Each structure stands twice: as C-alpha cells, then as structure tokens.
Amino acid sequence: MTIEVLKSKIHCATVTEANLHYMGSITIDEALMEAAGLFAGERVYIVNNMNGERFDTYIIKGPRDSGCICLNGAAARKVQVGDVVIIMAYAQMTPEEAQTFQPKVIFPTTDNKLV
Q1: Is 10 a domain residue?
Q2: CB contact at 8 A, 98 and 1
C-alpha cells in the first residue's frame, strides 16, 4: 500500500500574471521550482487564499529569478494578479517512507524571491 504525502510546497506566492489565451498550466520561476523540489510537467494543486478556489494543473518552467507565478489557460479565470496562492505537489510512498519523509516547503517574499 502507498499513501499520498505532501512532497513540495510554495507557501504564499503572489500571482504575477494570468494569461487566459495560453494552452494551460502554471509558469513558476525556475529558482522557486528548484528550491521547492518541483519539476517541469509535474502536477500541482493550487489554493487561492484570496477567493478559496482550489484547482490542479502542471508546471512550466519560468525564467530564473523572475518571480514569475503565472496561471495560464482556464486556470487564469481562478486568479487575479496580486492574489496569494499556495502551490503543492504530492508523492506516493509507503507508510514507512512517510514516517521519515520531510517535504520541501519554501516561503517566498511578497515579490516571489527566495529569502
């Protein structure tokens, strides 16, 4: 048996762009992705702290150190520029692995930079 456990989290990032006319996904600053242990193409769950929306999509790598958090396609309807979001990824593991696993959680500044 495996269970789904939080693997990575970007806590309270600020949305910098919402691009309705893109084919879908979330673009995330490459430096934030690396710090949180996230990968291009990985499925992520997003919570919008400003309106309560919860949805999932996949990651596109954004320019390093740009602070980019851009929701693309239909997901752009669920946010506004300036909204604060939490971005989470989960991993499957055995209960034994989960007992010692530590997720990577980062807390970017209000302009989405690493502290």
Answers
A1: yes
A2: no
